[in-house]
Amino acid sequence: MRLLLPLLLLVSSLPALAAPKLDQLVLPKGFHVALFSDQVPNAREMAVGTNGTVFVGSTDAGKVYALTDSNGDGVADRVRVIASGLQLPMGVAFHQGDLYVSAVSRIVVLRDIEHHLDAPPTPELVTDKLPTETHHGGKFLAFGPDGKLYVPIGAPCNICDPAPDHGKLIRMNPDGSGWEDVAHGIRNTVGFDWQPGTGHLWFTDNGRDLLGDDIPSDELNAITQAGQHFGYPYCHQGDLLDPDFGKGQTCKAFVPPVLKLGAHVASLGMRFYSGKQFPASYHGAILVAEHGSWNRTQKSGYRVMTVRVNGSKLVSYQPLLTGFMQHEKAWGRPADVQPLPDGSVLVSDDLAGAVYRITYQP
Fold first, then answer.
1. For 52-85, how does the pLDDT look when each residue is reduced to its tens digit (9 = 90+)?
2. Is residue 16 part of a domain?
3. Quick one: which of 102, 191, 194, 234 could link to 91 by a disulfide (CB 3.0–4.6 Å)?
4. Domain of 234?
């Protein structure tokens, strides 16, 4: 089945949003950050094609972008819109030449996309059977080592009992068949990746709101076997029973997080760093984009963090990229992180409408 959607092909001439304030960004010694593109409004999840095309999903605008760096200088010299008219197409995943895009209740695919950037194909329907709620309806997408497409179904609320159709992570075949539940008790994961070596799936999860400034924490979790339950809505952060839904429950019945990321930091995209450009202490570490709080008295998040682990054991939790907020006013909000084949890392920013590139040179 094919969907007829209007396409706007090229946006290189569009005016930039408020200029990203690169001079305010802070990194550890030896690291550098530069602008990859400032022409990607509402930039969210990123994926990299076989030929190096950087695909970026977005919110609000209904568009999916393709960024190309034809001369290899680390700056995108061409920005195209390859799909438009989609509902919250924040999730993108590249698989065997095709680009899969989330659109709330639907997932669509653009076939052989890197060979058709100037004349994108009409998106084909993969499935339209996902829930239609837009509250936590945007979906991060990723293909696993098993070749299956992993799709989160967030809770359609701040706090409610969403079982059995929401609050979980599922997987399906690339053609949309063969749905399987992977894990439950997940409020809203907007980032997950597979750990090199163990093959375990790790994911961020956003904690509920309206329990105060300091609880509950966002979570970094690891799935070690299929069917595990991570607590929502009964237990938060591994040790805090919900005042409404936790009655008669015990947190010991659920899988605790590997790390409490902090209350209301809005942890989104995460990836394991498998490159070689960064120092050895970053090899195998997790990079987490923290989008930032929206209702905390003093803002939290607005940064990219490095989580070092040894297997499933936490080693450290330290900043990599900060400075998106000055004096309680944010000019940028990190949404996703995406390592590139050369070992550099891209960071998307949906507030400034930009993508940055982090490199390391001592």
1. 999 999 998 899 999 999 999 999 999 999 999 9
2. no
3. 102
4. 22-360
